[in-house]
UniProtKB/TrEMBL annotation, chain A:
Residues found modified as Phosphocysteine: 8
Keyword Phosphoprotein: yes
GO biological process, one term: phosphoenolpyruvate-dependent sugar phosphotransferase system
PTS EIIB type-3 domain: residues covered: 1-102
Provenance organism: Paramixta manurensis
Domain of life assignment: Bacteria
Pfam families, alphabetized: PTS_IIB
Assigned keywords, A-Z: Kinase, Phosphoprotein, Phosphotransferase system, Sugar transport, Transferase, Transport
GO molecular function, one term: protein-N(PI)-phosphohistidine-sugar phosphotransferase activity
Name of the featured protein: PTS system, cellobiose-specific IIB component
SUPFAM superfamilies: PTS system IIB component-like (SSF52794)
Automatic annotation (TrEMBL), chain B:
GO molecular function annotation: protein-N(PI)-phosphohistidine-sugar phosphotransferase activity
Name by which UniProt lists this protein: Permease IIC component
UniProt-listed InterPro entries: PTS_EIIC, PTS_EIIC_3, PTS_IIC_cello, PTS_Sugar-EIIC/EIIB
Transmembrane helix listed as a keyword: yes
GO terms for biological process, alphabetical: phosphoenolpyruvate-dependent sugar phosphotransferase system
PANTHER family: PTHR33989, PTS SYSTEM N,N'-DIACETYLCHITOBIOSE-SPECIFIC EIIC COMPONENT
Source superkingdom: Bacteria
Organism phylogeny: Bacteria, Pseudomonadati, Pseudomonadota, Gammaproteobacteria, Enterobacterales
Organism name: Paramixta manurensis
Amino acid sequence: MNKILLCCAAGMSTSMVVQRMEKAAKDQGIELEIKAIGIEEFQQEIDKYDCCLLGPQIKYKLADFKPIADSLNKPISVINSMDYGMLNGAKILNDTLKLIQA
Amino acid sequence: MSSFSETLFGVIENRISPVAGRLSSQRHVIAIRDGFIASMPFLIVGSFMLLFAHPPFAANSQWAFAQWWLGMADRYAEQIMMPYNMTMGIMALYIASAIAYNLAQGYKMNGFMAASLSLMAFLVVAAPQTNKGLPVMSLGGEGIFTAIMVALFSTELMHFLQKHNIGFKLPEQVPPKIRQSFDLLIPIIAIFLTLFPLSLWIQHQFHMLLPQAIMSIFAPIISASDSLPAILIAVLLCHLLWFAGIHGAVIVGGILQAFWLTNLGINQQDLTAGQPVTHVFIEPFWQFFIVIGGSGSTMGLVLLYLRSRSAHLRTIGKLSIIPGMFNINEPVIFGSPVVMNPLLFIPFICAPLVNATIAYTATRTELVNHVISLAPWTTPAPIGAAWSTGWDFRAIILVAVLVGISTLIYYPFFRMYERQLLQQERETLTAAESA
């Protein structure tokens, strides 16, 4: 089971991306647990997931979050802004799976 | 790209963004912002009731429905206003506890205890008991800035005491729940040793409560916040940040919320007192007039995308139209992309500035009512605009006009960008064919 955490300002637009990623995972028969949160929940949640993706509108938080994620050995990255805008669930999912396996 | 725009983008990317990034990750700023967000549902429901108490009809209206509503609002005024009085009317109470709760969470301390402490501290300075009653006068809009300061002070105090291990030492055998209840003793005493004497001194010296004293200091800033230049600066800053790919509305809105709520409090007080309503800059004004469809007032751009000849833009248009109606526009901003796109920079900044100027003028000249109520920011703009202005249906017309104007502003730049994309799409097609 892959557990992915998505994080943006209020968890509003990421939840649209979550829906697309869930659909892509279902199409490809991949088991997935995925959750969208706002930035203030990051610290409490990161521990329970395999990796974290940030929405491009909060890419400035990467500097704060990366040391925390690194100390827990969780990969973290910012979603490609074009994929984010196009709600390209399949592409983001594949990039994420690579990130987890790497 | 000209050297001017390169310099401009450089300044945004290298100077404004990092500062904004740091500001928006700052513990106290986050606590204040999240405290306001947590208080919002109370304020939305409460201010909704205000609209029932003040029907949008003239007293001599011939319409039976209007007469019935006016009669009811008159007869049951007290009952109708109760939800308002218990929410908006004492909003600073909710804000004081919610900010303390969030700041305590940031310090990994017990949020409930911090919230209770802050609530007590705020009541001590803002509502000292007189004749067996708590005066509510300073618990509404007037108390907001005091609530913020008291919440930060009391939680910092608690944090300081905890960090330096100042408190009652109970033996290990005492159950944690009981030990917890002892943890608050020292902070409560500390409040009575610090804030309470300060409040007494101000009452004695200036014959007013702390919130009134703070408001008299803030008065010039608050009235300045309600001017067109202040609004335009806020709009400009928010959009420069968005252009750099940073969620500008969260940062600018988070800071402005205290002013917005104070302005709203004054408007509502004037309305209930039968005085003319005068303040303009309140969240619904920003949300439903300035940034229709999301930051950048992108509704106009999305409408253009829907009928674009570029496949890419048409796709974005279809993806964006539904979320856009609810003022969520990340798909347009990152999909187009608008972010760091020199072709869309001018309209993205100008459309909201023009909207702000027109809506400000329309409100000041009474072409539309002032904002007197809150609506959730995800309400579609025409509905949200009518709702928050006390069901003023001229607000819907204003929204339509503003969408029309922003569509015109976006149009030439949209055409340039479309031409560029069509060129690229043709090139990919020929490349695919010749391969």
